[in-house]
Amino acid sequence: MKYSRLTKEQFEELHKEFVNFLATQSITAEEWSKIKKSQPEVAEQELDVFSDLVWEGVLNKAMYLEHISAKQMHLFSLRESDMHVVAVTIKSDINLTTKEGFQWLRENLMHDDVEFLQATKRYSEDKNLDKFKLIQQGAVITKGELYHFFDKLIN
To answer: What is the top-level taxon of the source organism (predicted)?
Structure first.
């Protein structure tokens, strides 16, 4: 498996898509039940293949990622051949993951305790795996509003 297996909740959300996936392999609901009972390792493989297909589709469409921690915000624009990151670092006792901390940042963008950095990094041979690793580290897929705001602010 290239990425990670979908959660039970994700599989439930994608039930129709999973049924269609099985159908493309000529596996009926009855056959699927038999496979789960008599060949659990084959069932596990099918779940993994489907998970990878879903992840591949999601990662192909992802255009922005955000990773916000107590002292830093990393805002990624996922471009065709590279990713651009705008990083915001807070050097004071402010926690960006709280409502109050984020409000403080909004009101104090030019404070000496706020530092902005930006960088561009080319993807490795597997662009989607690069994106997935960021998600595993806590980044979430977004529409890019924060990225655009801060990119415009510092450029």
So the answer is: Bacteria
What pLDDT, on a 0 to 100 scale, did the predictor assign at position 30? Answer: 92
Domain shared by 108 and 132, yes or no = yes
Beta pairing, strands 72-78 & 140-142: unpaired
What CA–CA distance (Å, rounded) separates 141 from 155? 23
Q: Which among 35, 61, 87 is the end of a domain?
A: 61
Q: Which two tokens stand for residue 18?
A: 């999973």
pLDDT value, residue 77: 98
Domain shared by 70 and 41, yes or no? no
Domain count of the fold of the chain: 2
- Structure pTM? 0.88
DSSP state of 62: -
